[in-house]
UniProtKB/TrEMBL annotation:
This is chitinase. One of its GO terms (molecular function) is endochitinase activity. Residues 351-365 have a biased composition (Gly residues). Its EC number is 3.2.1.14. It comes from Hypocrea virens (strain Gv29-8 / FGSC 10586). Residues 28-330 form the GH18 domain. InterPro entries: CBD, CBD_sf, GH, Glyco_hydro18_cat, Glyco_hydro_18_chit_AS, Glycosyl_Hydrlase18_Chitinase. Residues 361-397 form the CBM1 domain. GO terms for cellular component: extracellular region.
Length: 397
């Protein structure tokens, strides 16, 4: 039985502790990005507090701080209620978002993150390790607890976010140094403020993620990651219900990362999906979505669903209800399978960058055909060719 949002909202409003904010021991977390109005309709993105009142949403990453050195912020139509700082026209002072973050946290118990990067980030990272360290300090002074000794502009004023999300989609020089310093600052603040601050990332499903791998590769402790299983050949649309081998869908690869590579062995993974047909390529719903969620529940790192983005979700009537229902339903118990959508991350260096393996058969479009540790077929179905993307990954394109 699918629960109505109105009924659930009324019920949980009376029990605010029943479900609010990220819960590492839950498999039913729901995160939805807000701030970019990807539906691009005049009224499709309301103010942040509107969505915090929805009891089914636990985590809201705000996108984006799409420039770090120098600082750039962009919140689509929400920026209409902001003003530029006098010393930087590309950084916005947003008292309405400040007010809403405080309401979201204190009234509704939501986990609010500031997301760095996004598709328009193009600064390429930091020129040196010292520049990366300084940039991390700037970011935390902007969005963390108010530092009386800092003079940096704070886009959300007195509001303090619950953490930082990395949504870098292009290369970032000295990212590991930046992330390490940011994690250190967050942990120090957590001790003095007596509250938890989260570090998350939103890598592409292809393993290893090109942009975020320097930080994800056992260097920095992330609390959870929200993998983009859309806009990629390894996305949820490539999952084949009932198949013994998943040629493309590779949650097992990332689950193995969580247990064998991640600096935090208890890191959690949210399955990222498109919230509507116009949100991204690879949108799924109905039985396909139910099947892939049921299958993915078998992995111990699974912690729920991430969606892109809020404006698209609210244009898609009934979709959130389905996600909530699918997460609450008993998971299937499929046989343990190995995807070919990315080799197991058992090694982080060395090895050939060309196709390896050589098992029988041919590989369909977007399927893996090579990479370190891969033992499957390397011959692509016509007319596709095996294209190397990294040490660990080659696919038929």
């Amino acid at each position: 039985m699918v629960r109505s949002l109105a009924y659930v909202g009324a019920l949980l409003a009376a029990l605010p502790s029943a479900r609010a904010g990220f819960n590492a021991s839950s498999t039913q977390n729901i995160a939805v990005y807000w701030g970019q109005n990807s539906a691009n309709q005049a009224n499709s993105q309301q103010r942040l507090s509107t969505y915090c009142a929805n009891a089914e949403i636990d985590i809201i990453p705000i996108g984006f701080m799409n420039g770090i050195s120098p600082v750039i912020t962009n919140f689509a139509n929400a920026g209409n209620n902001c003003t530029a700082f006098p010393d930087n026209a590309n950084a916005l002072d947003c008292p309405q978002i400040e007010e809403d973050i405080i309401t979201c946290q204190k009234t509704y118990g939501k986990t609010i993150l500031i997301s760095l990067g996004g598709g328009s980030y193009s600064q390429g990272g930091f020129s040196s390790a010292s520049a990366a360290t300084s940039a991390a300090q700037t970011v935390w002074n902007m969005f963390g607890p108010v530092n009386p000794n800092s003079t940096v502009d704070r886009p959300f004023g007195s509001a303090v976010v619950d953490g930082v999300d990395f949504d870098f989609e292009s290369g970032v020089n000295n990212l590991a140094t930046f992330a390490t310093e940011l994690r250190s600052l967050m942990d120090a603040s957590a001790s003095s403020a007596n509250r938890k601050f989260y570090l998350s990332a939103a890598p592409q499903c292809v393993y290893p993620d090109y942009a975020d791998n320097p930080a994800l590769n056992g260097v920095v402790s992330f609390d959870f990651i929200m993998i983009q299983y859309y806009n990629n050949g390894c996305g949820v649309s490539s999952y084949v219900p009932g198949a013994t081998i998943q040629w493309n869908y590779n949650f097992d690869v990332w689950d193995n990362w969580a247990h064998t590579v991640s600096k935090n062995p208890n890191v959690k993974i949210l399955l990222g999906i498109a919230a509507n047909t116009g949100a991204a390529s690879g949108y799924v719903s109905g039985t396909q979505l139910s099947a892939v969620i049921s299958f993915t529940k078998q992995y111990s790192s699974f912690a729920g669903i991430m969606m892109w983005d809020m404006s698209q979700l609210y244009e898609n009537s009934g979709f959130l209800d389905q996600v909530v229902s699918d997460l609450a339903a008993p998971g299937s118990s499929p046989p343990a399978t190995t995807s070919t959508g990315g080799s197991k991350p058992t090694s982080t260096s060395g090895g050939s960058t060309g196709p390896t393996g050589g098992g029988g058969g041919t590989v369909p479009q977007w399927g893996q055909c090579g990479g370190e540790g891969y033992t499957g077929p390397t011959q692509c179905q016509s007319p596709y060719k095996c294209v190397v993307s990294s040490t660990w990954w080659a696919s038929c394109q």
